[in-house]
Amino acid sequence: MSIVLSCGNLNKKYGRTYALRDLDLQLEENVIYGLLGRNGAGKTTLLNLIAGGISPNNGTIEVRGKKLGKGELPEDFCFVREKNKFFGEARIIENLQFAANFHPKWDWTLAHKLLETFRLDPHKKIRQLSRGAESLVGNIIGLASRASLTIYDEPVLGLDVLMRERFYKVLLEDYANHPRTILLSTHLIDEIVPVAERVYIIEAGALLLHDETERIRRAAYSIRGNSETVASFTAGKRVLYTESYGHGTLAAIYDKLNDGNIKQAREMGISIENLTLQKFFSYLIEGGH
Ligand SMILES: Nc1ncnc2c1ncn2[C@@H]1O[C@H](COP(=O)(O)OP(=O)(O)OP(=O)(O)O)[C@@H](O)[C@H]1O
């Protein structure tokens, strides 16, 4: 296991507001990560810090063991921004040609194939494109760059469900043949589940949790039942959130339950359901722990 990117104790303030607070993050080689957080959680700030666009007030960013200097870009790196800085008067193909100059592993065969997959006319000017089509141009650059560290800030913004599915599909196909480290920031949490092997969840500039997506899928449950029974069942377990209704309680727990636990819950009249990542995220944020 080798670490591609390591952020240590990152702090970024805008005036008195902390956009990021003591944030630690480590990305391993050849893993796809999801970066999840509400509006204003600090996702774009984190990505801009990694991409050298802004400097931290405190903390370090290391890429493959080498500390990034002020304004320095990681090597073999591609950043697909939420708001791409394309040349509006230039055509799609010209923007791709420009991007290709910065990425030594650029694959033109893939870029042309993706133009077809996403139904983009390469001769259209950027300023004539819809929001979604502009996102797709950024995504083509991210994919065709084959950069060993690629980060996407809201890559599916403005895309309809069909195009979102196509994007995730081609990303996974290309990743299977050309593994690299990918970090995707997104609001569409459940869509990231089949794509991201691990997720980082941030809230108010701080890291709330990072874990394997599959582990969250297997260890996150909602539990409902009589309040006293639920309290007795959840004692000693990691409870993320509780909510009362009438004589009952809903609890979200994050603890792997074995068959014995599940049998015991059923005998106690408690209903148990696995949580979707979206629900897990909401309970984690609402519960604050
Ligand atoms: N240039 C800036 N000047 C002042 N405050 C800023 C600036 N950029 C970001 N912030 C603040 O920093 C915090 C984090 O913002 P950031 O854009 O990183 O969040 P985000 O998670 O990317 O949000 P969203 O999902 O809405 O894009 C917010 O409180 C935001 O208002």
From TrEMBL:
Pfam hit, one: ABC_tran
SMART domains: AAA
ABC transporter domain residues: 5-229
GO terms, molecular function: ATP binding; ATP hydrolysis activity
Superkingdom per UniProt: Bacteria
Keyword ATP-binding: yes
Keywords, in A-Z order: ATP-binding, Nucleotide-binding, Transport
InterPro entries: AAA+_ATPase, ABC_transporter-like_ATP-bd, ABC_Transporter_VariousFunc, P-loop_NTPase
Cited Gene3D superfamilies: P-loop containing nucleotide triphosphate hydrolases (3.40.50.300)
PANTHER family: ABC TRANSPORTER ATP-BINDING PROTEIN ALBC-RELATED (PTHR42939:SF1)
Protein name according to UniProt: ABC transporter ATP-binding protein
Record lineage: Bacteria, Bacillati, Bacillota, Bacilli, Bacillales
